[in-house]
Amino acid sequence: MVYNSQMGGVFLIGFMGCGKSAVGVGLAERLNTYFYDVDLTIESREGMSIHKIFLTRGEKGFRELERETFSELAGRGAGVFAGGGGLFMDATNRKVIEGRGGLTVFLDVAWDVLARRLQGTKTRQRPLFRDLPQARTLYETRVGTYRQADITVFLSGQESVEEATDRVMDQIREVACAT
After folding, report:
1. 82 beta partners
2. In contact, 3 and 31? CB cutoff 8 Å
3. Please, are residues 115 and 136 in contact by the beta-carbon 8 Å criterion?
4. Average pLDDT for residues 11-33, to the nearest whole number?
5. What is the per-residue pLDDT for 131?
6. Are 147 and 107 in contact (CB under 8 A)?
7. Judging by beta carbons within 10 Å of its beta carbon (0-12, 13-18, 19+), is residue 150 exposed, middle or buried?
8. What CATH number is associated with residue 77?
9. What tens digit of pLDDT does each residue of 140-170 get?
């Protein structure tokens, strides 16, 4: 598949631990385009971790930075974009994607797989993670919004990053061929 600047971008969404960043890197390589990780960009610009931003500015302050950074990155043109699990929950961010003509891809990984991946996670790695019961509640409040994505790619958790990327590419091809 040839990716071009007329495409509005591929926006990977899903819960923490679903593989947005890992799949995003491989997907950008295959599409011969840029990969933008919103959280890494924020950390680089602010000179501190997402955890530290949450501590110093709170979730509201982080979401403002996220919204601003995401809007700027999405305005750069074609690419593959990944953000934290809360990025797509923000209506302003969804409007940015829509305005770009972007394609949203929900990496749908079953809760039990996510729980295994998140086990042992520290708050400094994922600021909204406290424990598995709290994370499951957060997951359940978000999954309905994630399902509004243009494409849902079901991942068992047994796939390698390359296999997961193949699955996403297959779904993007199907959508591209249908239009």
Report:
1. 12, 37
2. yes
3. yes
4. 95
5. 79
6. no
7. middle
8. 3.40.50.300
9. 999 999 999 999 999 999 999 999 999 999 9
| Residues pairing with 154 in the sheet | 108
The string of DSSP codes covering 154-175 is EE-S-S-HHHHHHHHHHHHHHH
Query: Domain count of the chain?
Result: 1
Cβ neighbours of 21 (radius 10 Å): 17
Is residue 123's pLDDT more than 70?
A: no
Residue among 128, 33, 130, 140 at smallest CA distance from 84: 128
Inside any domain, residue 4: no
Neighbours of 155 (CB within 10 A): 19
| CA distance linking residue 16 with residue 113, whole number of Å | 11
Amino acid 7: pLDDT: 65
Distances (CA, A) of 82 to 36, 131, 132, 133, 134: 6, 24, 23, 25, 23
For residue 5, tell me if it sits in a domain: no
- Specify the pTM: 0.90
What lies within 8 Å, CB to CB, of 47 at 6+ separation is: none
